[in-house]
Amino acid sequence: MKRELDADLIRPEKLLSSSDTAGIGTDGCKNCCACCRMRGSAIVLDAWDVQLLKNGLNFSFEGLLAEKLITLAVIDGVVLPCLPVKEEEDECLFLKENGRCAVYDFRPGICRMFPLARIYHPDGSFSYFLQDGECEKPGGAEIRISAWLGYENVKEYESFVRTYHDALVRLRNECAACEKTEDAARLQMDFLQEWFF
Ligand code: SF4
Ligand code: SF4
């Protein structure tokens, strides 16, 4: 199943930009850690996420892989880096026993957004939206989304992830059109080299 969401399925009034506010404050958080459990689906890392982890943990991409601090998995037909999952616990490797994140300062974008998610529009823009039923805490304080994400330069971040997303969509289309498995594998290796190594 593809992870791309169709913007038509989300009511326009629910689509938000990073300069909007949303009721996402942490007041009411039950520390249940459900947001750090995988529930059968991997947390996929983009190239910005991996760069943060490289800087924060002081490893190259190869080093992160060798130390098993990231893993590779086939996501919608393409090999991509993901957060590792603790064996038998179905939770993120970086979730500590006290319920805190071991890599909080350089945690991935998907963790920063939660309980928001992102949707990409064909015109090159994208929106955030509040995911229904993903977090059991009652509505929190209104917070500006740019502040919630916690990046120094949100516009630079958004421009980067948009460019990365479009490159990934192109890769998926090119791989789907490949007649030989080895051609698709070469395209994917080139993509990993360009964006992650
Ligand atoms: S799922 Fe919601 S209530 Fe549970 S720890 Fe995450 S933010 Fe808090
Ligand atoms: S990186 Fe941190 S915030 Fe993200 S899922 Fe893992 S423990 Fe949770």
Number of domain units: 1
The order of strands across the largest sheet is 1-6
Number of strands: 6
What structural class do the secondary elements suggest?
Answer: alpha+beta
Mean pLDDT figure = 92
Are there runs of 5+ residues with pLDDT below 50, and where?
none
| Largest sheet entry | 2 strands, antiparallel
In DSSP terms (H or I, runs of 4 or more residues), the helix count works out at 6
Rg, Å, rounded: 17 Å
Share of helical residues: 25-40%
Provide the β-strand percentage band.
5-15%
Distinct bound molecules: iron/sulfur cluster
Q: Which of globular, elongated, flat, extended, rod-shaped describes the shape?
A: globular
The topology string of helices and strands comes to: EHHEEHEEEHHH
Instruction: For the record, give the distance between the C-alpha atoms at the N and C termini, rounded to a whole number.
Output: 27 Å
Give the helix/strand layout.
Layout: E1 21-23, H1 47-57, H2 61-66, E2 71-75, E3 78-82, H3 109-113, E4 116-120, E5 126-130, E6 142-144, H4 145-149, H5 154-177, H6 181-195
Antiparallel strand pairs: 1-6, 2-3, 4-5
The structure holds iron/sulfur cluster (2 copies).
Residues 29-35, 135-137 line the site of one iron/sulfur cluster.
